[in-house]
Give the backbone structure.
Amino acid sequence: MYSLNLPSYPIKVSGTKTHPTVFDPLRSKYVALTPEEWVRQHFVHFLIHHKGYPRLLMANEVPLSIGDKHLRADSVLYDSELKPRMIIEYKAPSIALSQKVFDQITVYNMLLHVDYLIVSNGRQHICCKMDYQNNSYSFLEDVPPYSEI
């Protein structure tokens, strides 16, 4: 479908030519195969199989609410006590990672207060570590392995 800057894997695609679907192991079901979903599935595979993230502590399409507004975080990583630790926002490979993308994930973080934020379009990945004591953040060169967060 799209060439990504992520490891390939034997992705499970089904559906029809006009309505393809892909198996999401976190939701345990087939979902519509969009460009963003292609990125999500590859990134989740990367986190689990290459960075050691526990599949059982991750969730896709996490519902969030701000007043009457209902949002969905693309992926959230939790700790063993189910406290959110990381939010990951995906975009299609054709979408540039802009300030608008960071503004979107920042809104989610106002609710979840996680330690790490990641945005990815499958070709570029940007990871930030939050520092709430100093009201700042720092960009990391790479997505940290689970053992380091």
The chain is about 20% helix and 35% strand. Residues 19 and 74 are 21 Å apart (CA to CA). The chain has a mean pLDDT of 94.
